[in-house]
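I'm curious: can you give me some protein's one-letter sequence along with its backbone structure tokens because I've never seen that pairing?
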Amino acid sequence: ESFIKAWNSDGWGDNYGYNVSLDNDTLAVGAYWDNSTGAVYIYKRTGSNWAQEDYLRPVNLPSYKRFGTAISLDGKTLAVGAYEEGSTQTTITNGTTASSTTNSDSEQSGAVYVYKRADNSTWVQEAYIKAVNNDREDHFGASVALDKDTLAVGVRYEDSNQTTITNGTSASSNDSNSSSGAVYIYSFTGK
């Protein structure tokens, strides 16, 4: 048995352990209020001992993103939801950057960050994902599920009036069905 606490625990509402994901000898722990932005702690088990491997925060600070509210770990890939992230972007950015451009129409729209283990102890951002119909207070990334080359992203307050499945890269922008919710599915290669 092991008992794990954050190295920077200040006893002040970080919500460390709000969400966890375990795959073999790797553990990801979300702390969605860590430093007012959120963080994910990565631990690696060797034998029966756990040690911290990395500490992840969103590249596009400042605060109030709820980074780490949702996490999903599969092998060497980690998806992290940040449902209060507020950039105006409506595309996927591959690489280590993320948009910081915001306005009142995109507040709390949400984002998902995808990381890959680069070596035995470092995780590097591989993608930054925003909904194609990005909208204020949708909470994209409130839940995430990762399995091999497929990522599912829950968006609990998405407002479109669509009642069908759209295969492809588009989604309805009609916001007449308030907080009805949606799921976005992404496939990627190189895992």
User: Anything to note?
Assistant: Residues 117 and 123 are 4 Å apart (CA to CA). The chain has no helices and twelve strands. The first strand starts at residue 16 and ends at 23.
